[in-house]
Write a structure and sequence with these properties.
Order of helices and strands: HHEEEEHH
Radius of gyration: 12 Å
Number of domains: 1
Strand order of the largest sheet: 1-2-3-4
Oligomer: single chain
Helix content: 25-40%
Structural class: alpha+beta
Number of strands: 4
Distance between the termini: 7 Å
Number of helices: 4
Length: 94
């Protein structure tokens, strides 16, 4: 599966979320992959979050997270940032 990363400028839009994403990037693993989506697990300090990538959707809607911040804000969260950094830095491979 080809994953379309979020642009670096969008990832760095909120420096606080970006810094948290950098910290979490080494705590990303792959849960499972299908033909149309992939599920990542991001291990936080107290909780584990699920980040999903949906190949059939467009733009930033391809990325979704189960965290409260993403659900309420509908914006890229630190967990989605962590997965994008992890993929870019090859901490995990698809």
């Amino acid at each position: 599966m080809h994953i379309e990363p979020i642009s670096q400028s969008s990832l760095e839009e909120d420096s606080k979320r970006y810094i948290k994403g950098v910290i979490l990037a080494k705590k990303v693993s792959i849960d499972y992959e299908t033909a149309k989506h992939i599920s990542f697990s991001v291990e936080g300090e107290e909780t584990k979050h699920n980040v999903m990538y949906f190949d059939e959707k467009t733009g930033t809607k391809k990325w979704q997270c189960d965290c409260k911040w993403y659900t309420l804000q509908n914006k890229v969260c630190s967990h989605i940032i962590a997965v994008n950094i992890s993929l870019k830095e090859a901490f995990i491979k698809i």
